[in-house]
Amino acid sequence: MKTENTDFIIGRHPAIMALKSDQEINKVFIQSGLKADAIAQIIKLAKEKRLVISNVPKNKLDMMTDHQNHQGVALAVAAYQYATIDDLFDNAAKHGEDPFFLILDELEDPHNLGSIIRTADAAGVHGIIIPRRRAVGLTSVVAKTSTGAIEHVPVARVTNLVQTAKELQDRGVWLFGTDMKGKDYRTWDAHGAVALVIGNEGKGISALLKKTCDEMLTIPMIGHVQSLNASVAASLLIYQGFNSRHPLK
Description:
Elements: E1 2-3, E2 7-10, H1 12-20, E3 25-31, H2 36-48, E4 52-56, H3 58-64, E5 73-77, E6 81-82, H4 85-94, E7 100-104, H5 110-122, E8 127-131, H6 140-145, E9 155-158, H7 161-170, E10 174-184, E11 194-198, H8 207-212, E12 215-218, H9 230-245
Parallel strand pairs: 3-4, 7-8, 7-11, 8-9, 10-11, 10-12
Antiparallel strand pairs: 1-6, 2-5, 3-5
């Protein structure tokens, strides 16, 4: 695992999920004056881990969390841990399944990344790959938007997505990108080892990465707006992958 910058986990549910996981936590900050029953589980879990709990005024918690909706709780974490590509394959093997990965090409909005991680966890995706540069990483906003899913879906951060894509192909993974000229996503059969490539919110998939993909998928649209939010498009595609891998009996 690779360690990155220090950050905060904010919000009650993300805090509970983090405290239940193996995430390394330095300190727990609780807003002074909160009703005990609202944060009882957080305090109990923190005490079980023998963590330092600090009661701080709301304005200090606001400043620490950059005025985000912290719900009176913030965990100072040593760092988010990024997985390796091998970790992703190991996760699939642990579940006794063919790998199902996501490759996110220069996604910039932390809310989109958090939402995609949440959907990925729900649909049994074994890991996510993001680039080190020109893309959002695992921040407190991502963690909060994922509502705790960030603790369960390994995320690898790589220097070169194209090289990583070729490595996946060498290891038997079939790459599916998204393009207006692709085949209807509803026909996609995601059996076997697959990776779904989701492009940047505005530019889509970069030309070199698109060229590396084995096949392209498209989401048909008949309305007036011919584009979807990145996390919404990703969710549709992820669940088509889930549907084909886990058909109704």
